[in-house]
Amino acid sequence: MISLKTLPTPPDTQLRNLGWDWMLGKDTLPYLTNEVVTVKPAEADAYYEAANELFEMFVAAGQHVIDKNRFAELGIPENLVELITLSWDDDRNIHLYGRFDLAGGVDGRPIKLIEFNADTATCLPETAVVQYAHLKANGLDDSQQFNAVFETLTGQFEELLALNPDLQPTLLLSAMGGFPEDDTNVALLGEAAREAGFDIEFDFVDNVDFSAEEGIFWQNPKNGEFEKLDFWFKLVPWESIAEEEPELVQLLTEIVRKRLAVVLNPAYTLLFQSKYILKILWELYPNHALLLETDAQRLIDKPCVEKVLFGREGANTRILNADGSEHHSTDGDYGNYPKIYQEYVEFPQDLSGNVYQAGVFYAGEACGLGFRRGGLILDNTAGFVGHVIE
Predict the structure, then answer these.
(1) From its phi and psi, is residue 123 left (phi > 0), alpha (psi between -120 and 50) or beta?
(2) How far apart are CA 285 and CA 191, in angstroms?
(3) Cα–Cα dist 106/2, whole Å
(4) pLDDT for 93-111, tens place per residue?
(5) pTM for the complete prediction?
(6) Same domain, 174 and 312
Protein backbone atom coordinates (compact mmCIF):
# COMPACT_ATOMS: atom_id res chain seq x y z
CA MET A 1 0.00 0.00 0.00
CA ILE A 2 1.29 3.44 -0.90
CA SER A 3 2.02 5.75 2.03
CA LEU A 4 0.33 9.18 2.00
CA LYS A 5 0.75 12.19 4.26
CA THR A 6 -1.34 15.35 4.48
CA LEU A 7 0.37 18.75 4.20
CA PRO A 8 -2.50 21.01 5.30
CA THR A 9 -1.31 24.40 4.03
CA PRO A 10 -1.94 24.83 0.27
CA PRO A 11 0.82 26.45 -1.82
CA ASP A 12 -1.08 29.47 -3.19
CA THR A 13 0.68 32.10 -1.07
CA GLN A 14 4.08 30.49 -1.53
CA LEU A 15 3.60 30.44 -5.30
CA ARG A 16 2.93 34.18 -5.26
CA ASN A 17 5.99 34.71 -3.08
CA LEU A 18 8.06 32.85 -5.67
CA GLY A 19 6.71 35.10 -8.40
CA TRP A 20 4.82 32.28 -10.11
CA ASP A 21 1.44 34.02 -10.21
CA TRP A 22 0.71 32.49 -13.59
CA MET A 23 0.56 29.12 -11.83
CA LEU A 24 -2.55 30.12 -9.88
CA GLY A 25 -4.99 29.56 -12.73
CA LYS A 26 -7.66 26.91 -12.64
CA ASP A 27 -5.78 24.61 -15.01
CA THR A 28 -2.96 23.56 -12.69
CA LEU A 29 -3.90 23.76 -9.03
CA PRO A 30 -6.83 21.31 -9.16
CA TYR A 31 -4.32 18.58 -9.94
CA LEU A 32 -2.62 19.17 -6.59
CA THR A 33 -4.12 17.65 -3.47
CA ASN A 34 -3.07 18.33 0.11
CA GLU A 35 -1.83 14.75 0.21
CA VAL A 36 1.71 13.80 -0.78
CA VAL A 37 3.38 10.43 -1.29
CA THR A 38 6.00 9.65 1.33
CA VAL A 39 9.22 8.38 -0.20
CA LYS A 40 12.21 6.96 1.65
CA PRO A 41 15.66 8.44 0.89
CA ALA A 42 16.81 5.14 -0.65
CA GLU A 43 13.71 5.09 -2.88
CA ALA A 44 14.39 8.63 -4.12
CA ASP A 45 17.99 7.62 -4.89
CA ALA A 46 16.75 4.57 -6.79
CA TYR A 47 14.45 6.70 -8.97
CA TYR A 48 17.40 8.99 -9.76
CA GLU A 49 19.70 6.12 -10.66
CA ALA A 50 17.02 4.31 -12.69
CA ALA A 51 16.28 7.32 -14.90
CA ASN A 52 19.98 7.95 -15.55
CA GLU A 53 20.56 4.32 -16.50
CA LEU A 54 17.45 4.22 -18.68
CA PHE A 55 18.51 7.28 -20.64
CA GLU A 56 21.83 5.65 -21.50
CA MET A 57 19.91 2.58 -22.66
CA PHE A 58 17.62 4.73 -24.82
CA VAL A 59 20.64 6.36 -26.46
CA ALA A 60 22.06 2.93 -27.28
CA ALA A 61 18.68 1.83 -28.64
CA GLY A 62 18.41 4.98 -30.75
CA GLN A 63 21.85 4.36 -32.23
CA HIS A 64 20.82 0.78 -32.98
CA VAL A 65 17.70 1.94 -34.84
CA ILE A 66 19.76 4.35 -36.94
CA ASP A 67 22.57 1.86 -37.63
CA LYS A 68 20.13 -0.91 -38.62
CA ASN A 69 17.68 1.43 -40.43
CA ARG A 70 14.70 0.27 -38.36
CA PHE A 71 12.80 3.58 -38.59
CA ALA A 72 9.77 1.99 -40.27
CA GLU A 73 9.32 -0.50 -37.44
CA LEU A 74 9.10 2.40 -35.00
CA GLY A 75 6.40 4.03 -37.11
CA ILE A 76 8.73 6.94 -37.91
CA PRO A 77 7.34 8.94 -40.86
CA GLU A 78 9.74 8.65 -43.78
CA ASN A 79 9.87 12.42 -44.23
CA LEU A 80 11.44 12.78 -40.76
CA VAL A 81 14.26 10.28 -41.13
CA GLU A 82 16.75 12.75 -42.60
CA LEU A 83 16.07 15.36 -39.91
CA ILE A 84 16.32 12.71 -37.19
CA THR A 85 19.72 11.62 -38.50
CA LEU A 86 20.95 15.19 -38.90
CA SER A 87 20.02 16.12 -35.35
CA TRP A 88 21.38 12.85 -33.92
CA ASP A 89 24.76 13.26 -35.57
CA ASP A 90 25.27 16.83 -34.31
CA ASP A 91 25.93 16.94 -30.56
CA ARG A 92 24.93 20.60 -30.45
CA ASN A 93 21.31 19.42 -30.72
CA ILE A 94 20.91 18.27 -27.13
CA HIS A 95 17.81 16.63 -25.74
CA LEU A 96 16.46 19.40 -23.53
CA TYR A 97 14.22 17.36 -21.23
CA GLY A 98 11.77 14.47 -21.02
CA ARG A 99 9.87 12.44 -18.43
CA PHE A 100 10.16 8.75 -17.62
CA ASP A 101 6.91 7.12 -16.51
CA LEU A 102 7.69 4.35 -14.06
CA ALA A 103 5.80 1.69 -12.14
CA GLY A 104 6.89 0.75 -8.63
CA GLY A 105 9.72 2.33 -6.67
CA VAL A 106 7.71 2.56 -3.45
CA ASP A 107 5.98 0.03 -1.22
CA GLY A 108 8.77 -2.45 -1.88
CA ARG A 109 7.94 -2.75 -5.58
CA PRO A 110 10.78 -2.76 -8.15
CA ILE A 111 11.03 0.16 -10.57
CA LYS A 112 9.85 -0.75 -14.08
CA LEU A 113 9.87 1.45 -17.18
CA ILE A 114 6.41 2.12 -18.60
CA GLU A 115 7.49 4.62 -21.29
CA PHE A 116 9.55 7.73 -21.96
CA ASN A 117 7.83 11.01 -22.83
CA ALA A 118 10.89 12.34 -24.62
CA ASP A 119 9.44 14.85 -27.07
CA THR A 120 6.65 16.94 -25.53
CA ALA A 121 6.50 16.00 -21.87
CA THR A 122 4.16 17.99 -19.65
CA CYS A 123 3.66 18.11 -15.83
CA LEU A 124 6.67 20.44 -15.55
CA PRO A 125 4.92 23.18 -13.52
CA GLU A 126 3.36 20.70 -11.12
CA THR A 127 6.63 18.88 -10.55
CA ALA A 128 9.03 21.82 -10.54
CA VAL A 129 6.98 24.51 -8.82
CA VAL A 130 3.70 23.46 -7.25
CA GLN A 131 4.92 20.54 -5.15
CA TYR A 132 7.97 22.56 -4.10
CA ALA A 133 5.75 25.44 -3.03
CA HIS A 134 3.53 22.97 -1.16
CA LEU A 135 6.60 21.67 0.68
CA LYS A 136 7.78 25.17 1.63
CA ALA A 137 4.30 26.34 2.62
CA ASN A 138 4.32 23.63 5.27
CA GLY A 139 7.73 24.57 6.65
CA LEU A 140 9.60 21.59 5.24
CA ASP A 141 13.18 21.60 3.99
CA ASP A 142 14.33 21.45 0.35
CA SER A 143 16.17 18.23 1.10
CA GLN A 144 12.82 16.51 1.71
CA GLN A 145 12.00 16.47 -2.01
CA PHE A 146 13.73 15.03 -5.08
CA ASN A 147 13.20 18.16 -7.13
CA ALA A 148 15.88 20.14 -8.93
CA VAL A 149 13.87 20.41 -12.16
CA PHE A 150 14.09 24.18 -12.60
CA GLU A 151 17.79 24.42 -11.78
CA THR A 152 18.64 21.47 -14.02
CA LEU A 153 16.62 22.88 -16.92
CA THR A 154 18.46 26.17 -16.50
CA GLY A 155 21.71 24.23 -16.71
CA GLN A 156 20.54 22.58 -19.93
CA PHE A 157 19.86 26.00 -21.48
CA GLU A 158 23.30 27.18 -20.35
CA GLU A 159 24.77 24.10 -22.03
CA LEU A 160 22.87 24.95 -25.22
CA LEU A 161 24.43 28.39 -25.28
CA ALA A 162 27.91 26.98 -24.64
CA LEU A 163 27.55 24.42 -27.44
CA ASN A 164 26.19 26.94 -29.97
CA PRO A 165 28.34 30.09 -29.68
CA ASP A 166 27.82 30.83 -33.38
CA LEU A 167 24.08 31.43 -32.81
CA GLN A 168 22.34 34.34 -31.11
CA PRO A 169 20.79 33.59 -27.68
CA THR A 170 17.27 34.23 -28.97
CA LEU A 171 14.63 31.64 -28.14
CA LEU A 172 11.03 31.42 -29.33
CA LEU A 173 8.80 29.04 -27.38
CA SER A 174 5.63 27.79 -29.07
CA ALA A 175 2.66 25.65 -28.18
CA MET A 176 -0.62 25.02 -29.95
CA GLY A 177 -3.47 27.41 -29.11
CA GLY A 178 -6.31 26.38 -26.83
CA PHE A 179 -4.34 24.23 -24.38
CA PRO A 180 -3.71 26.25 -21.19
CA GLU A 181 -1.74 23.42 -19.61
CA ASP A 182 0.73 23.58 -22.49
CA ASP A 183 1.05 27.34 -22.01
CA THR A 184 2.14 26.89 -18.38
CA ASN A 185 4.71 24.25 -19.34
CA VAL A 186 6.15 26.56 -21.98
CA ALA A 187 6.16 29.46 -19.52
CA LEU A 188 8.27 27.49 -17.06
CA LEU A 189 10.75 26.53 -19.78
CA GLY A 190 10.94 30.19 -20.79
CA GLU A 191 11.77 31.24 -17.23
CA ALA A 192 14.58 28.67 -17.06
CA ALA A 193 15.93 29.85 -20.43
CA ARG A 194 15.78 33.50 -19.37
CA GLU A 195 17.76 32.69 -16.24
CA ALA A 196 20.36 30.94 -18.42
CA GLY A 197 20.85 34.05 -20.54
CA PHE A 198 18.39 33.69 -23.42
CA ASP A 199 16.23 36.47 -24.78
CA ILE A 200 12.86 34.77 -25.02
CA GLU A 201 9.58 35.25 -26.86
CA PHE A 202 6.34 33.27 -26.79
CA ASP A 203 3.86 32.71 -29.60
CA PHE A 204 1.58 29.99 -30.88
CA VAL A 205 3.04 27.77 -33.58
CA ASP A 206 0.59 29.08 -36.18
CA ASN A 207 2.22 32.52 -35.88
CA VAL A 208 5.77 31.35 -36.59
CA ASP A 209 7.36 31.77 -40.04
CA PHE A 210 9.96 29.42 -41.49
CA SER A 211 12.42 29.96 -44.34
CA ALA A 212 14.77 27.32 -45.74
CA GLU A 213 17.17 30.11 -46.68
CA GLU A 214 16.99 32.38 -43.63
CA GLY A 215 15.66 30.48 -40.61
CA ILE A 216 12.84 30.96 -38.11
CA PHE A 217 11.01 34.26 -37.70
CA TRP A 218 8.42 35.80 -35.41
CA GLN A 219 6.50 39.03 -35.96
CA ASN A 220 6.95 41.35 -33.00
CA PRO A 221 3.51 42.81 -32.23
CA LYS A 222 5.10 45.92 -30.72
CA ASN A 223 6.58 47.13 -33.99
CA GLY A 224 5.29 44.74 -36.65
CA GLU A 225 8.87 43.75 -37.52
CA PHE A 226 9.85 40.15 -38.30
CA GLU A 227 12.64 39.05 -35.98
CA LYS A 228 14.91 36.04 -36.52
CA LEU A 229 15.26 33.65 -33.59
CA ASP A 230 18.09 31.13 -33.52
CA PHE A 231 16.48 28.65 -31.11
CA TRP A 232 12.91 27.34 -31.31
CA PHE A 233 11.16 25.17 -28.73
CA LYS A 234 7.92 23.60 -29.91
CA LEU A 235 5.47 21.79 -27.63
CA VAL A 236 4.06 20.11 -30.72
CA PRO A 237 4.62 16.37 -31.33
CA TRP A 238 7.01 15.54 -34.12
CA GLU A 239 4.72 12.85 -35.52
CA SER A 240 1.90 15.42 -35.80
CA ILE A 241 4.18 17.83 -37.70
CA ALA A 242 5.26 15.02 -40.03
CA GLU A 243 1.70 13.90 -40.75
CA GLU A 244 -0.06 17.25 -40.90
CA GLU A 245 2.68 19.66 -42.06
CA PRO A 246 5.04 17.79 -44.40
CA GLU A 247 6.20 21.06 -45.97
CA LEU A 248 7.26 22.27 -42.53
CA VAL A 249 9.35 19.11 -42.10
CA GLN A 250 11.19 19.97 -45.32
CA LEU A 251 11.80 23.52 -44.14
CA LEU A 252 13.03 22.42 -40.71
CA THR A 253 15.34 19.85 -42.30
CA GLU A 254 17.01 22.60 -44.32
CA ILE A 255 17.08 25.00 -41.34
CA VAL A 256 18.86 22.41 -39.18
CA ARG A 257 21.18 21.32 -42.00
CA LYS A 258 22.28 24.92 -42.64
CA ARG A 259 22.64 25.76 -38.94
CA LEU A 260 20.04 28.51 -39.25
CA ALA A 261 18.43 27.45 -35.95
CA VAL A 262 18.38 24.76 -33.27
CA VAL A 263 15.01 23.06 -32.78
CA LEU A 264 14.02 21.67 -29.38
CA ASN A 265 13.36 18.94 -28.60
CA PRO A 266 15.41 17.60 -31.55
CA ALA A 267 13.71 15.38 -34.12
CA TYR A 268 15.61 12.34 -32.85
CA THR A 269 13.51 12.39 -29.68
CA LEU A 270 10.78 10.74 -31.77
CA LEU A 271 12.93 7.59 -31.65
CA PHE A 272 12.51 7.60 -27.88
CA GLN A 273 8.86 8.68 -28.03
CA SER A 274 7.78 5.74 -30.20
CA LYS A 275 6.66 2.97 -27.88
CA TYR A 276 8.22 0.46 -30.28
CA ILE A 277 11.54 1.49 -28.71
CA LEU A 278 10.37 -0.56 -25.68
CA LYS A 279 10.62 -3.67 -27.88
CA ILE A 280 14.08 -2.60 -29.08
CA LEU A 281 15.19 -2.13 -25.47
CA TRP A 282 13.98 -5.64 -24.59
CA GLU A 283 15.94 -7.01 -27.56
CA LEU A 284 19.12 -5.22 -26.48
CA TYR A 285 18.70 -5.72 -22.73
CA PRO A 286 16.60 -8.89 -22.27
CA ASN A 287 15.36 -9.42 -18.71
CA HIS A 288 16.92 -6.16 -17.53
CA ALA A 289 15.68 -5.33 -14.03
CA LEU A 290 14.19 -1.98 -15.14
CA LEU A 291 12.36 -3.32 -18.20
CA LEU A 292 9.13 -5.16 -18.93
CA GLU A 293 8.94 -7.70 -21.73
CA THR A 294 7.61 -6.01 -24.87
CA ASP A 295 6.82 -7.40 -28.31
CA ALA A 296 4.97 -6.52 -31.50
CA GLN A 297 2.59 -9.47 -30.87
CA ARG A 298 0.49 -10.24 -27.82
CA LEU A 299 2.48 -11.93 -25.07
CA ILE A 300 1.36 -15.52 -24.69
CA ASP A 301 0.10 -16.81 -21.34
CA LYS A 302 0.73 -13.60 -19.43
CA PRO A 303 -1.28 -10.40 -18.92
CA CYS A 304 -0.08 -7.53 -21.09
CA VAL A 305 -0.94 -3.98 -22.11
CA GLU A 306 -1.68 -3.13 -25.74
CA LYS A 307 -0.42 0.34 -26.62
CA VAL A 308 -0.37 2.34 -29.83
CA LEU A 309 3.06 3.55 -30.93
CA PHE A 310 2.26 7.24 -30.57
CA GLY A 311 -0.66 7.30 -28.16
CA ARG A 312 -0.76 9.99 -25.48
CA GLU A 313 -2.32 10.33 -22.02
CA GLY A 314 -3.37 6.69 -21.87
CA ALA A 315 -5.61 6.86 -24.95
CA ASN A 316 -6.27 3.73 -27.04
CA THR A 317 -4.81 1.43 -24.38
CA ARG A 318 -6.06 -2.06 -23.55
CA ILE A 319 -5.16 -4.30 -20.61
CA LEU A 320 -5.39 -7.93 -21.74
CA ASN A 321 -5.71 -11.00 -19.55
CA ALA A 322 -3.33 -13.93 -19.97
CA ASP A 323 -5.80 -15.61 -22.36
CA GLY A 324 -6.00 -12.50 -24.54
CA SER A 325 -9.42 -11.36 -23.37
CA GLU A 326 -9.86 -7.67 -22.59
CA HIS A 327 -9.73 -6.63 -18.95
CA HIS A 328 -9.93 -2.84 -19.37
CA SER A 329 -9.57 -0.32 -22.19
CA THR A 330 -9.68 3.37 -23.11
CA ASP A 331 -10.83 5.10 -26.28
CA GLY A 332 -8.93 7.82 -28.12
CA ASP A 333 -7.83 9.36 -31.37
CA TYR A 334 -4.74 7.22 -31.99
CA GLY A 335 -6.32 3.87 -32.87
CA ASN A 336 -4.89 3.77 -36.39
CA TYR A 337 -1.30 3.51 -35.18
CA PRO A 338 0.40 0.09 -34.97
CA LYS A 339 0.41 -1.63 -31.59
CA ILE A 340 2.97 -3.02 -29.17
CA TYR A 341 2.38 -5.31 -26.20
CA GLN A 342 4.08 -4.73 -22.86
CA GLU A 343 4.01 -7.09 -19.91
CA TYR A 344 1.41 -5.94 -17.38
CA VAL A 345 2.61 -4.80 -13.99
CA GLU A 346 0.53 -3.64 -11.04
CA PHE A 347 1.00 -0.06 -9.85
CA PRO A 348 1.12 0.91 -6.17
CA GLN A 349 -2.34 1.77 -4.79
CA ASP A 350 -3.81 3.67 -1.87
CA LEU A 351 -6.67 2.61 0.40
CA SER A 352 -9.21 4.04 -2.05
CA GLY A 353 -7.89 1.93 -4.91
CA ASN A 354 -6.25 4.80 -6.78
CA VAL A 355 -3.11 3.79 -8.67
CA TYR A 356 0.12 5.82 -8.62
CA GLN A 357 2.62 6.18 -11.45
CA ALA A 358 5.95 7.85 -10.79
CA GLY A 359 7.22 10.42 -13.25
CA VAL A 360 10.94 11.24 -13.20
CA PHE A 361 12.08 14.20 -15.27
CA TYR A 362 15.38 13.93 -17.12
CA ALA A 363 17.27 17.01 -18.33
CA GLY A 364 20.86 15.90 -18.88
CA GLU A 365 20.38 13.91 -15.68
CA ALA A 366 17.44 12.80 -13.56
CA CYS A 367 16.16 15.87 -11.76
CA GLY A 368 12.69 15.55 -10.26
CA LEU A 369 9.98 13.17 -9.07
CA GLY A 370 6.21 13.48 -9.06
CA PHE A 371 3.25 11.11 -9.13
CA ARG A 372 0.12 10.85 -11.25
CA ARG A 373 -2.91 9.34 -9.56
CA GLY A 374 -5.92 7.81 -11.26
CA GLY A 375 -7.63 4.64 -12.38
CA LEU A 376 -6.35 1.39 -13.81
CA ILE A 377 -5.22 3.18 -16.99
CA LEU A 378 -3.91 6.67 -16.26
CA ASP A 379 -5.51 9.06 -18.75
CA ASN A 380 -6.07 12.80 -19.08
CA THR A 381 -8.30 12.77 -15.98
CA ALA A 382 -5.42 11.69 -13.72
CA GLY A 383 -4.38 14.07 -10.96
CA PHE A 384 -0.93 15.13 -9.78
CA VAL A 385 0.37 14.23 -6.32
CA GLY A 386 3.60 15.61 -4.89
CA HIS A 387 5.98 13.80 -2.58
CA VAL A 388 8.01 14.24 0.55
CA ILE A 389 11.16 12.31 1.49
CA GLU A 390 11.27 11.04 5.04
Answers:
(1) left
(2) 38
(3) 7
(4) 999 999 999 999 998 999 9
(5) 0.95
(6) no
